[in-house]
């Protein structure tokens, strides 16, 4: 792969594979996934449930439930280290301070029996050895920074005393506490209503503009992706099916799955018409179809898709990749026939 | 927190009244005339019976009798047994025996149950977890009485490690064997509840958050898992104290320890209604007190309970 962009990548994930032991046998949840995050940019991993988007970031940060999950291959390069081969102790020095995470449901992701102040202060205490009172003071500053009114008093409140949006702000304050270089947000707005969702995304964008950190945002919401992503990675059945700059991917999608996703977005022009949907359901990872996993749902599937799995390969445009045989024989109405 | 405690305390008052009244009414409803039973074969003179009945307020309606009883109880006068002993004095003599037995058993049960349960739950499916599962199954399968008699005949009679019966050696000598048997019998349930609770909390979302914060496993266990996992465990311990008290009655009989259990047992056999009511009431109040403590601990551990 040639990388014309001059800047050193901040976080470079290469050929990551993760497998799960289940009662029915082993399944591959993440299959040779690669993506690159740059300083100051937002990378969105887009995919439906079970596509492996959360598992891949959990594997990188070492918070995968293991067992049953195992990383079976790949690298995650960050500041000259491979996160996947670090000792647990060394990784604890990175995760939480230099790379931090925000989860979907802040109510269950925050400890119900500790005040939010204490949960934020814990980071300063553990990673920096700050004194108790200093750590609490900084926790209040963080709450203030993420826009929680009356932050100084609210550090002593418990998670259940906050509204959903404010709770997610608490999560973000906690993730930003130690000034991370990488922020991984796993569906941070899914549990919130649309207006609050917009506020949270705005907050993330503001903070990113201030700090130059790289953000990895996981979502299944195409609208969210379109709004904030600089770079887009589309995942399907544990694999990357398409990646590239957001404008390129959404403006000229190369993979039939991405095309299907874009067509199924409601729009004003198609008002009154039936909304096109991708037929079928995502595959069972235990029983993947032969060849291309998207084949049974693909309008362009042909013989080669049954026998040969398409590899991720360069697609037209800069730093663009796609995993589809159509990239070899450009898509035309005639060529699409089986 | 203070308001929470006060509210809990206020709720206890009507419950205490209802429960003591129910116990009193149940004993009242028992067949037989206690004064006639007292005299045995030889009938008492009518005048004596009348005097005794008046003295014990036996001619008054149930509710009035209950009020007399509660009034005296609140004044600290627990009344007398039919053969003229002061129940309060008897209790004062016997409480320490039951308390020493119960608390020693509780301590053994807590240490065994909590340590093994926490360890097994934190390392779920590990060696300790599997061993604990087998051990608790074994303990739960053994009937308490069998274990009591076996321990007495083997460790006390056969090996002479402990006194066979009686409390003459004082604490801990006389109490160690019965308390250990009680404690080990009770540990199985506690260990299982603890193990399950720890394992469940360990897979909670906020524990994943704690890992994402780069915290060491020990800090996650002590700082984040334990306090949340203790909620069901404390409820279980509160309920289980009743089991220990019930177990104490049987244990005191087998090991001939002269505690509340023995007193209760003898009073039921002698149809001493007044003593049974008094003892039940005291035990019930004690049990309610334990429940109050559990409620308060719950509020202390979980802010969500406090703020409801």
UniProtKB/TrEMBL annotation, chain B:
CDD domains: TM_PBP2. InterPro entries: BPD_transp_1_N, MetI-like, MetI-like_sf. Keywords: Cell membrane, Membrane, Transmembrane, Transmembrane helix, Transport. It is found in: Cell membrane. It holds the Pfam family BPD_transp_1. The chain crosses the membrane at residues 9-30, 99-120, 132-155, 175-193, 229-255, 275-301. Residues 95-294 form the ABC transmembrane type-1 domain. It is a multi-pass membrane protein. GO terms for cellular component: plasma membrane. One of its GO terms (biological process) is transmembrane transport. Belongs to the binding-protein-dependent transport system permease family. This is ABC transporter permease. The lineage of its organism: Bacteria, Bacillati, Actinomycetota, Actinomycetes, Kitasatosporales.
């Amino acid at each position: 792969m040639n990388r014309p962009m001059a800047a050193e990548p901040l976080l470079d994930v290469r050929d990551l594979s993760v497998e799960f032991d289940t009662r029915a046998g082993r399944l591959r949840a993440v299959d040779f996934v690669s993506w690159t995050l740059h300083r100051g940019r937002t990378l969105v991993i887009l995919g439906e449930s079970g596509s492996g988007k959360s598992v891949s970031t959990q594997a990188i940060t070492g918070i995968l439930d293991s067992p049953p999950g195992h990383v079976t291959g790949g690298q995650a390069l960050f500041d000259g280290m491979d996160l996947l081969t670090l000792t647990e102790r060394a990784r604890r020095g990175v995760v939480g301070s230099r790379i931090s995470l925000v989860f979907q449901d802040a109510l269950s992701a925050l400890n119900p029996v500790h005040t939010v102040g204490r949960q934020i202060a814990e980071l300063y205490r553990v990673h920096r050895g700050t004194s108790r009172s200093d750590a609490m003071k900084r926790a209040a500053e963080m709450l203030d920074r993420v826009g929680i009114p009356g932050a100084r008093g609210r550090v002593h409140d418990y998670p259940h005393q906050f509204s959903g949006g404010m709770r997610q702000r608490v999560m973000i304050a906690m993730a930003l506490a130690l000034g991370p270089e990488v922020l991984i947000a796993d569906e941070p707005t899914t549990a919130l209503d649309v207006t609050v969702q917009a506020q949270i995304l705005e907050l993330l964008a503001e903070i990113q503009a201030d700090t130059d950190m790289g953000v990895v945002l996981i979502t299944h919401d195409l609208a969210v992706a379109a709004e904030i992503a600089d770079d887009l990675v589309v995942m399907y059945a544990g694999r990357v099916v398409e990646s590239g700059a957001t404008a390129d991917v959404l403006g000229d999608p190369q993979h039939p799955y991405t095309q299907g996703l874009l067509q199924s977005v409601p729009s004003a022009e198609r008002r009154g018409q039936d909304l096109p949907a991708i037929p079928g359901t995502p595959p069972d990872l235990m029983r993947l179809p032969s060849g291309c996993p998207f084949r049974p749902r693909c309008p362009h599937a042909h013989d080669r898709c049954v026998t040969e799995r398409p590899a991720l390969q360069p697609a037209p445009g800069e730093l663009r990749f796609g995993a589809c045989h159509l990239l070899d024989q450009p898509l035309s109405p005639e060529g699409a026939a089986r | 927190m203070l308001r929470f405690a006060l509210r809990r305390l206020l709720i206890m008052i009507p419950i205490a009244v209802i429960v003591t009244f129910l116990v009193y009414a149940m004993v009242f409803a028992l067949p037989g005339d206690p004064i006639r039973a007292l005299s045995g074969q030889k009938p008492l003179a009518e005048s004596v019976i009348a005097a005794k009945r008046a003295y014990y307020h036996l001619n008054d309606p149930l509710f009035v009798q209950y009020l007399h009883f509660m009034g005296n109880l609140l004044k600290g006068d627990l009344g007398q047994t039919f053969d003229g002993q002061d129940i309060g004095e008897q209790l004062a003599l016997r409480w320490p025996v039951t308390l020493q037995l119960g608390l020693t058993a509780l301590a053994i049960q807590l240490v065994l149950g909590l340590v093994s349960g926490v360890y097994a739950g934190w390392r779920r499916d590990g060696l300790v977890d599997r061993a604990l599962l087998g051990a608790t199954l074994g303990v739960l399968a053994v009937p308490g009485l069998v274990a009591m008699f076996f321990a007495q005949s083997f460790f006390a009679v056969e090996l002479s490690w402990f006194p066979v019966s009686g409390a003459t050696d004082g604490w801990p000598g006389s109490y160690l064997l019965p308390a250990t048997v009680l404690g080990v019998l009770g540990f199985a349930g506690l260990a299982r509840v603890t193990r399950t609770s720890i394992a469940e909390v360990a897979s909670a979302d906020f524990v994943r958050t704690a890992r994402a914060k780069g915290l060491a496993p020990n800090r996650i266990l002590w700082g984040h898992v334990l306090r949340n996992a203790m909620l069901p465990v404390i409820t279980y311990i509160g309920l289980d104290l009743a089991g220990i008290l019930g177990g104490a009655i049987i244990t005191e009989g087998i090991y001939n320890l002269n505690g509340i259990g023995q007193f209760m047992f003898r009073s039921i056999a002698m149809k001493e209604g007044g003593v049974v009511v008094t003892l039940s009431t005291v035990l019930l109040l004690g049990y309610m007190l334990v429940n109050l403590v559990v409620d308060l601990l719950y509020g202390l551990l979980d802010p969500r309970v406090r703020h409801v």
